[in-house]
Amino acid sequence: MKNNLLKSIFYVISFCTILLSIMGCINNSNNTQTNEFNNNVPSGKIIEGIRVVNINKDKINFSIYVFRGETVRLLLEKRNYDYSVHIPDFNLSKDSIIDKELSIELKAKTIGVFPIFCNGNCPYGDGIQAGKIIVMEYESDQGTFFKNVTAKEAKEIIEKDKPFILDVRTPTEFYSGYIPGAKLIPVQQLAERISEIEEFKDKDVLVYCRSGNRSIVAAEILEVNGFKKIYNLSSGIRGWINEGFKVVK
Q1: Per-domain residue ranges for the chain?
Q2: Distance separating alpha carbons of residues 175 and 205, to the nearest angstrom
Q3: 95 φ/ψ angles, rounded to the nearest 5 degrees
């Protein structure tokens, strides 16, 4: 009788241990999914309007954090063997050249987690996932006020608050039609020309490009340089024109 009781207790304890382990695994899995976007710290650095991320040849199962709207350039350290990199969600495949750095450029248009695969003589194994690109929505982490706005909201802000309007497209795009009162500084030049607009650091700034992507990068550059209140025209000037609002040519 005593032995049967001990066996019963042993089975109950074993069952509870297994159940707790399973629950722990489930929770850890959920936490992993949730925390993918909790990093909020982008990888690499912005150089001439492009987020440049260097990847060490020995790095395995890496995660690259970028913001939606950014153009991203991945620089894989040179290796003394052939391999190829594939990013299916971006329809990108590129072969390496022995002893030369491999450069891959992409536009991060959609929020999500996108795997990177390596084929050939890869340290991870042929065809194995080498890492992932995690595309996040841009949020200020330095106390700066940042907000994505529609064309209608942008027009209201212009009429009410008279913000400084910054166009970060190319000169050709700018002179084909721009929002009245806008100043042109292409996003590739913004960091180097920031002194031209320092007087607006404590004022409202409305930044825009063609479709709301390059202006995200511009917002990052403005924030790093101490600008306090930034509005991003999320639909770009295309949305402005589609609403029938005035442009200057």
Answers
A1: 45-136, 145-242
A2: 21
A3: -95, 145
Indicate if 209 belongs to the active site: yes
The C-alpha atoms of residue 105 and residue 103 are separated, in whole angstroms, by 7
- The tens digit of pLDDT for each residue in 19-31 reads 333 334 333 333 3
> Global pTM?
0.75
Render pLDDT for 192-242 as a digit per residue (tens, 0 to 9). 999 999 999 999 999 999 999 999 999 999 999 999 999 999 999 999 999
One of 25, 118, 122, 209 is an active-site residue; which one? 209
Pick the CATH number of 145-242 from 3.30.1330.10, 3.40.250.10, 3.40.50.620, 3.50.50.60: 3.40.250.10
At 144, is the pLDDT very low, low, confident or very high (cuts 50, 70, 90)? confident
The CATH T-level fold of domain 45-136 is Immunoglobulin-like (2.60.40)
Distances (CA, A) of 55 to 17, 44, 179: 41, 9, 40
Q: What is the pLDDT of residue 126?
A: 81
- In order of 2, 58, 89, 122, 149, the CA distances from 96 in angstroms are 70, 15, 20, 11, 41
